[in-house]
Each structure stands twice: as structure tokens, then as C-alpha cells.
Amino acid sequence: DLQEQQETLDRLSVKVQSLEEEVGNSELKQEAFRLHQQLSEALQRQEEWQSKAQESPQEERERLLHQVKADNQEIASIEKRTSELQSRLSAVREQLQGAEEDLEE
Q1: Separation of alpha carbons 47 and 61, rounded Å
Q2: Whether 33 contacts 23, CB under 8 Å
Q3: Considering the entire predicted model, what is its pTM?
Q4: What is the pLDDT of residue 33?
């Protein structure tokens, strides 16, 4: 079973590579691919806007509040990590300075 899956994966990888080369060799196909991606992204944004437009003011408020809370948690996590890294950097600098002083002696 695992062997079959690996063979299938290998075949699909070769197929993808072949298709990428084919698309890479054709400017028209590249342009069509780029336009298809843009269309897909635009349709996705349209769906998001439509779903947001259908929200009641209370739902929008709750969604935005949830987003703010999530963003604040992420900021706090990043700040904590930054502080930890700054502490480690200071410790390493002190060790380096101590080593340099030892070498001077």
C-alpha cells in the first residue's frame, strides 16, 4: 500500500514537472495561468465580502472583536519571544566580552 502510494506520488510529481515545463515554455499559457489565478483570488475576495456584507452589525462587531483579540495574542507572543531573544543575545554578548577579556590577559 505504501509502495503504491509512493509510486503514485512519483508519477504525479513527474506529471506536474512536465506540465510546469510545458506552461513555462508558452507565454500564452503563462498569461492564461496568471489570469486564472487572479480570477480565482478575485472570486474568493468577492465571496468574503459578500459574507461580510450579510453580517448583522452585532456579528461584524463580534468577528472584529475576535480578530482584535487574536491579533493581540499574536503580538504578545511575538513580544515575549523578542524579549527572550534579547535576553539570550545579551547573555551571549557578556560571554563574548568575558572571553575577549580572558584572551587579553
Answers
A1: 19
A2: yes
A3: 0.45
A4: 83
